[in-house]
């Protein structure tokens, strides 16, 4: 073979290799594209099945009212139970999303002021409840009016009543609550008489196992929602479609962004059990400790919260998100938190009874339930136990620091 023939042969081989490499690259790219497409189809099919399971008992007209078509945003009837600070913020957020919003309260004067002045005279009165381009929030104050509003097909109920009043209210008024109405729970706490998660207590009060429930949580001071500060929340439901419904109702694509979750247990535990931890954070501030101590407290406390979430049947990853670490940081680092302020007052010598005369501090009583859960699950949880002991004056602040800092050395395990 001459030199010229050899050169041409090598050139052809190089061309064949380049062609082969190009073919392989194109095939790989096409494979990735089709695999991604199949995954999207799979997820879409899962959502379609979830929708079917949720709505198989509804008539065609009722399905339309629920806004099944996720490609368009339909106007929903939203009834907010409770006209406190957070109920007001939730009503305003739902109205910003273009929905027909009604707030139920027992105070007739408060109701009249909301309807005439478009302000809540008791809570967040500095903010107007008029939303530009959207119908104003309406107030109602009688059970007859509430029954009429709840009669709307596809109605969504946003529950914003105090935790300890919730199950008795639902038990007393269960006959006017439609069995297919989605109840979105925003109260972050546990029902103390039965030591239950709020969802379980509501279902027991209604005596229904199939009532659709969702749970909205995350770092969210009511005043900052009203100011329009960008805020992110998470909504969880056993039926993902119900979480998607609430996501579409509450998200306004400007100041409020809502994520979905299928872990109601984790979201409820994160929202409720961060309260006693926030009391502990207030105690740290009251002792005069700085950011080193508070950051360590929050980090290790979140690990204990994660342990308890696993033991109670929740997803530990939920505690890493908005309902866990997000809400925990909000309440531990901010003086706006009632629980955080309570911890400071306790360390300064005030009594629990005096602190709770004019305000409800969920973290005090919830600390008792947290220890009950820990004992039931066989968990040590030293931070929860120290906070509980400090609340009940069983140990001194100095002893609490010695107990926590003097624990045996160990390897940090991040789950």
Describe the structure.
Keywords: Membrane, NAD, Oxidoreductase, Transmembrane, Transmembrane helix. Residues 263-401 form the Glycerol-3-phosphate dehydrogenase NAD-dependent C-terminal domain. This is Glycerol-3-phosphate dehydrogenase [NAD(+)]. By secondary structure, this protein is of the alpha/beta class. The chain has two domains: 62-262, NAD(P)-binding Rossmann-like Domain (Rossmann fold, 3-Layer(aba) Sandwich); 267-405, Orthogonal Bundle (N-(1-d-carboxylethyl)-l-norvaline Dehydrogenase, domain 2), CATH 1.10.1040.10. The protein is 56% helix and 10% strand. It has 18 helices and ten strands. A hairpin with a 4-residue loop joins strand 6 (190-191) and strand 7. Helix 10 (264-286) runs antiparallel to helix 11 (291-311), helix 16 (362-377) crosses helix 17 and helix 17 (382-391) runs antiparallel to helix 18.
Write the layout of secondary structure elements.
Elements: H1 3-55, H2 60-65, E1 77-81, H3 85-96, E2 100-104, H4 108-117, E3 138-140, H5 143-150, E4 156-159, H6 166-172, E5 182-185, E6 190-191, E7 196-197, H7 198-206, E8 213-217, H8 222-227, E9 231-236, H9 240-250, E10 256-261, H10 264-286, H11 291-311, H12 316-319, H13 322-333, H14 338-347, H15 352-355, H16 362-377, H17 382-391, H18 397-405
Helix pairs in contact: 6-7, 10-11, 10-13, 10-14, 10-16, 10-17, 11-13, 16-17, 17-18
């Amino acid at each position: 073979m001459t030199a010229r023939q050899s050169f041409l042969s090598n050139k052809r081989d190089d061309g064949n290799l380049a062609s082969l490499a190009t073919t392989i690259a194109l095939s790989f790219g096409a494979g990735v594209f089709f695999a991604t497409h199949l995954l999207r189809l799979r997820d879409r099919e899962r959502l379609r099945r979830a929708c079917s399971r949720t709505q198989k008992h509804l008539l065609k007209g009722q399905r339309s009212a629920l806004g099944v078509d996720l490609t368009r945003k339909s106007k929903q009837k939203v009834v907010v139970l409770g006209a406190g600070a957070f109920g007001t913020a939730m009503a305003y957020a739902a109205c910003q999303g273009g929905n027909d919003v009604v707030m139920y309260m027992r105070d007739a004067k408060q109701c009249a002021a909301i309807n005439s002045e478009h302000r809540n005279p008791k809570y967040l009165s500095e903010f107007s409840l008029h939303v530009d381009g959207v119908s104003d929030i309406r107030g109602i104050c009688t059970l007859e009016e509430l029954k009429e509003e709840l009669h709307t097909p596809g109605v969504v109920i946003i529950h914003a009543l105090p935790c300890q009043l919730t199950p008795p209210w639902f038990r007393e008024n269960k006959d006017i609550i439609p069995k297919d109405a989605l109840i979105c729970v925003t109260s972050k706490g546990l029902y103390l008489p039965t030591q239950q998660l709020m969802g379980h207590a509501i279902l027991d009060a209604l005596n229904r196992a199939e009532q659709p429930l969702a749970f909205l949580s995350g770092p969210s001071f009511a005043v900052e929602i009203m100011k329009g500060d960008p805020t992110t929340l998470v909504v969880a439901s056993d039926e993902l479609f119900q979480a998607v419904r609430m996501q579409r109702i509450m998200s306004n694509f400007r100041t409020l962004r809502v994520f979905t979750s299928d872990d109601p247990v984790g979201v409820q535990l994160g929202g409720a059990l961060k309260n006693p931890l926030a009391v502990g954070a207030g105690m740290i501030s009251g002792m005069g400790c700085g950011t080193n101590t508070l950051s360590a407290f929050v980090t290790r406390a979140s690990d204990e919260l994660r342990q308890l979430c696993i033991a109670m049947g929740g997803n530990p990853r939920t505690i890493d998100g908005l309902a866990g670490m997000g809400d925990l940081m909000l309440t531990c680092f901010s003086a706006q938190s009632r629980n955080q302020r309570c911890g400071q007052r306790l360390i300064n010598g005030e009594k629990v009874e005096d602190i709770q005369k004019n305000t409800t501090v969920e973290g005090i009583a919830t600390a008792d339930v947290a220890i009950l859960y820990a004992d039931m699950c066989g968990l040590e949880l030293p931070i929860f136990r120290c906070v509980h002991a400090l609340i009940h004056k069983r140990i001194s602040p100095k002893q609490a620091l010695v107990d926590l800092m003097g624990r045996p050395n160990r390897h940090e395990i991040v789950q």
